[in-house]
Amino acid sequence: MKNCCSDFTPYPTDEKYFEVVKIEKVKNVCSSCEDFAKGQIDKKTPIAVLCCEGACLRGEVARQAANLVCFKLLPENTARICLGGAFTKNTGQRNLVRNASKVVALEGCFIDCSSRMMKGVLEGLELDVIRVDTLYDFDRNLFAINDLPEEKIKELAKVAANKILEKLH
Length: 169
Ligand code: SF4
Known about the structure:
Blueprint: H1 31-41, E1 47-51, H2 57-73, E2 78-80, H3 83-88, H4 92-99, E3 102-107, H5 113-121, E4 128-131, H6 150-168
Parallel strand pairs: 1-2, 1-3, 3-4
Helix pairs in contact: 1-4, 2-6
Bound molecules: iron/sulfur cluster.
The site of iron/sulfur cluster has 10 residues, from helix 2.
């Protein structure tokens, strides 16, 4: 018999479980971003890499790690997604996520912003979440970007990027 509690899935419009937002549409098109997205699709179903892009230390490490993975360590197989573009516009960046062979969300912390955002605009999207702040050692009481020197942040991003690479293989 079906266990109604463990199988519970919230109904998508239930505001107890979901925030409903209205995103203003925009006519402006960033042709550089669209061209970039098109070029990435030409890689033939790349792994789409979302990232928190956050303003704090954890977000910054995740952001730098995402850039290392996509532009240095695995550029042929990954597409670095513009989270803002993919979330707010149904154009090239969202298409990249939609058509990717796999979607990976590099989350700065357990708020899981990038994966929750994309699941909000692409219903049923399946993705792998990697909480980047679990991949490196640091003082967990620190929060802001300026709580660590830039060089140290770069070092942590490298450590995280190499571990992300292992998970992608
Ligand atoms: S979601 Fe988490 S990691 Fe990202 S900016 Fe906010 S607090 Fe930082």
